[in-house]
């Protein structure tokens, strides 16, 4: 059981028998009345978002999730397909439940899969991924007043701002937490 001080952004709790991840967390102290925490939680299975207020002495159950490795295979329609690294069984997850992480998945990407009651419910994308630049507009000569960046398109279709020296075919490292360009990878 997690008390009010242990529930943080990213914590995975069990509510009504299903796993939820904490997506927003605000706490305020009310004089001698104790602490009140307002949280938003997202269901890892259905994607439903709830807002909940927790009083100072209330507790929430921690969801029992197991972690394993899986490989991203492909996407079709609204689903992304993966293969478990140990059992080689294939499973799919709704793209909406994956969230922004879907922008950084290419064939063969290794991910961490979160399993609840022997059912895959979510994935964690590596913090940094390397992707090939599909298209990059040429740099305009003299366009360097201030921060000189341009919008490039990566092999997954994701667009990101990058320095002017990045060109088509380069491999770049992207931070999946911020969605931003980190560096060009030496070939």
Report on this model:
2% of the residues lie in helices and 55% in strands. It folds into three domains: 2-62, Roll (SH3 type barrels); 65-124, Nucleic acid-binding proteins (OB fold (Dihydrolipoamide Acetyltransferase, E2P)), CATH 2.40.50.140; 128-184, Beta Barrel (OB fold (Dihydrolipoamide Acetyltransferase, E2P)). The chain is built from one helix and 16 strands. Strands 1-6-2-3-4-5 form a six-stranded antiparallel beta sheet, with no helix packed on it. The protein has a five-stranded antiparallel beta sheet with strand order 9-8-7-10-11. A five-stranded antiparallel beta sheet has the order 14-13-12-15-16, with no helix packed on it. The longest helix has 4 residues, at 95-98. With 187 residues, it is mainly beta. The model has no long low-confidence stretch (mean pLDDT 85).
